[in-house]
Amino acid sequence: MHADSVPLDARPAVGAGQAVCSAGELRPGQMLPVLADGRDVVVIRTPDGGLHGLEDRCLHCGRRLSHGRLHVAVTATDVGRYEEEQGRFVIKCSGDGYEYDVATGTTLFDSARSVTRVAVREADGAIFVGAPAA
Ligand code: FES
Questions:
Q1: Which residue range is the domain that position 69 belongs to?
Q2: Does residue 61 lie within any of the structural domains?
Q3: Which residue's C-alpha comes closest to atom 3 of ligand 1?
Q4: How confident is the model over 62-74, as pLDDT tens digits?
């Protein structure tokens, strides 16, 4: 579940209030890098259908989160015993493995460190980045 197949020069570049894609184009488990109003954003459709937006830059060395992996969050209940956290999803950076909660942008290892969340919404069969136009 990553966006390696979307070259950076092929990503949608949109201005405020413009749709980045149709709602059906971003399927559960997919991520879409976009240049929205001059800002790098990754739009994320989690496997449960949730829609999220984050700044598309890792806090560590700046790799694009859209080139990472989207997966279900996992907790360890004992040595070798892992359980999936229902409804919580994580992007793992393709670099050195920083992991971010997609709903909050917060790193899993330090709750004080987060990438910026970006407002995304689905309306009229399309996906938009940023606040609704006035
Ligand atoms: S650039 Fe993301 S973990 Fe290193």
A1: 8-129
A2: yes
A3: 96
A4: 999 999 999 999 9
